[in-house]
Amino acid sequence: MDDKTSRRRELRLLQQESVWLQKGLFALRKADTMHEKVSELRGEEEMEPYNVGHGAGSLPLSDIEDAMEEHIESLMKTVKEMRRSLR
User: For residue 59, what is the enclosing H or E element?
Assistant: First the structure.
């Protein structure tokens, strides 16, 4: 496999990674929306933040979403730069 072919393959894989992360982000947002609806249905005036447990603690879902958004943006920037260099 020559260098250009290898770089095109890497580009496709980075694009696929970005697509899957975007789908995951969409799913997290849908879960958060459902959490809000359940809270409204229960008549809760103040909704508890949606936290995701891990190990000894938990993380707010919003922090995970923010981190994913930053990573997706970084991937898209890399993909854009690779496309330019492959022309």
Answer: strand 57-60
Q: Which residues contact 5 (CB under 8 A, 6 or more apart)?
A: none
pLDDT, tens digit (0-9, with 9 covering 90-100), for 45-66: 887 788 888 778 888 889 999 9
Q: Coil, helix or strand for 42?
A: coil
Residue type, 57: G
Statement: residue 41 has pLDDT above 90: yes
Locus of tokens 């492959």 = 86
First to last CA, the chain: 18
Q: Which residues pair with 57 in a beta bridge?
A: 54
8-state DSSP, 43: T
Within 10 A of 50 (CB to CB), how many other CB atoms are there? 20
Distance CA 65, CA 76 (A): 16
* Amino acid found at 52: V
